[in-house]
Write a structure and sequence with these properties.
362 residues; alpha/beta; 5,6-Dimethylbenzimidazole Phosphoribosyltransferase, Chain: A, domain 1; Rossmann fold; 2 domains; 6 strands; 49% helix; globular; binds nicotinate mononucleotide; binds 5,6-dimethylbenzimidazole; glycosyltransferase; Nict_dMeBzImd_PRibTrfase_N; EC 2.4.2.21
């Protein structure tokens, strides 16, 4: 499945992009007055191969959850059980992501790809429809109960990493088959900013000081220790950016691998994928290493407060739509950016031309 997905990813359609640029020039607004929204709409036309591209509706958030062996190194102040407990909160509709998803009319799919502790017993709604915006859905696709400690050994085998990537592709296909017009990345995993920092350093060559942040909020001594853990991981493993599956296996998390799969799956279906924070953009680097043209499908929702996010976005050549100092994850930053993406596309569908509206041009 991974090979066929990668093979299906194509470059942007130049004719559709040229048509979108030409249309922008005829709409009743000064040229360039919609700033970054104009280039975003052009990119989405290129992705869809159509001008205007389809409105990005309905929206579907996929939250991939996993635990991390490196948690044993005390890189996060939070107990590992919080990952499973927050899944309960997502399914009950009580997390920030649920509040923002209700506001945006987006569905929420929670995917257990490798949570270490038992999940809450019953979801609030049994077996909801795939894109039901009112009922979060749980998919259990656990590869193993958390990764191994990447400072000691490879976090995953190649087969385990591949299984998680394939799960991400399968979820993308399922959501798009159900009618989703845009996918939004979400993640939950206590400790997952540490593998994100290692992945970003591995794919960009940046120094761990520039890729490591405070995650959920660590104090100064713990932050210094976390940077040392990231450095130790880079020294421990031979990481070849041309072998993204090998990198994900050595130092990734199951949610990072699954997110890479989701992004590849969306790109193969020419469907935009709105990236959330540092975990998403670390996975996006892996996706781009698998298939450089996958970047055409990526929209950077926001700039996470984690420094590694800025390093990764620069490497991908993406400008984030909003910059609010968020560092929550779950898909929250992507959901806040969703109306901006919809607005960018809506302009191409609904705004009158100078000619049709009888407005004089300069
Ligand atoms: O999205 C982000 O950029 C982001 C930044 C900091 C923390 N998080 C979330 O916080 C958790 C990981 O933080 P930590 O400190 O345990 O590594 C995990 O559940 C992430 O979703 C997310
Ligand atoms: C409470 C809590 C909620 C989260 N959501 C995403 N990561 C999280 C980490 C914690 C600790």
């Amino acid at each position: 499945m991974l090979e066929t997905t990668i093979a299906a990813i194509r470059p942007a359609d130049d004719a559709a992009m040229a048509a979108a640029r030409e249309l922008h020039g005829r709409l009743t607004k000064p040229a360039g007055s919609l700033g970054a929204l104009e280039e975003l709409s052009v990119r989405l036309a290129g992705l869809a191969g159509a001008c205007p591209p389809p409105l990005p509706e309905p929206a579907a958030v996929a939250i991939f959850a996993g635990d991390h062996g490196v948690h044993a190194q005390r890189v996060s102040p939070w107990p590992q059980e919080v990952t499973a407990q927050m899944i309960g909160n997502f399914l009950a509709g009580g997390a920030v992501v649920n509040a923002f998803a209700r506001q945006a009319g987006a569905s929420v799919t929670v995917v257990d790809v490798g949570v270490a502790t038992p999940l809450p017993t019953e979801p609030a709604v049994l077996d909801p429809a795939v894109l039901d915006p009112a009922a979060p859905r749980l998919v259990v696709a656990s590869v193993r109960r958390g990764t191994r400690d990447l400072t000691v050994t490879a976090a995953l085998t190649r087969d385990e990493a591949l299984a998680a990537v394939q799960t991400g592709i399968r979820i993308a296909d399922e959501l798009i088959d159900a009618g989703a017009g845009i996918l939004l990345t979400g993640d939950m995993g206590i400790g997952n900013t540490t593998p994100a920092a290692v992945l970003i350093a591995a794919f960009t060559g940046a120094d761990p000081l520039d890729t490591t942040g405070r995650g959920t909020g660590v104090d100064d001594p713990t932050y210094a220790h976390k940077v040392a853990v990231v450095r130790a991981a880079l020294a421990r493993h031979t990481l070849d950016p041309a072998d993204p599956l090998g990198v994900l296996a050595a130092v990734g998390g199951l949610e990072h691998a699954a997110l890479a799969g989701l992004i590849l799956g969306a790109a193969a279906r020419r469907t935009p994928v709105l990236l959330d924070g540092v975990i998403a953009v670390s996975a996006a680097l892996a996706a781009a290493a698998f298939a450089p043209d996958a970047v055409c499908a990526m929209v950077a929702g926001h700039r996470s407060a984690e420094p590694g996010a800025t390093v990764a976005l620069r490497h991908l050549g993406l400008d984030p739509l909003i910059d609010l100092g968020l560092r929550l994850g779950e898909g929250t930053g992507a959901l806040l950016a969703l109306p901006v993406v919809t607005g960018a596309v809506r302009v191409l569908h609904e705004v009158a031309t100078f000619d049709s509206a009888g407005v004089a041009e300069k």
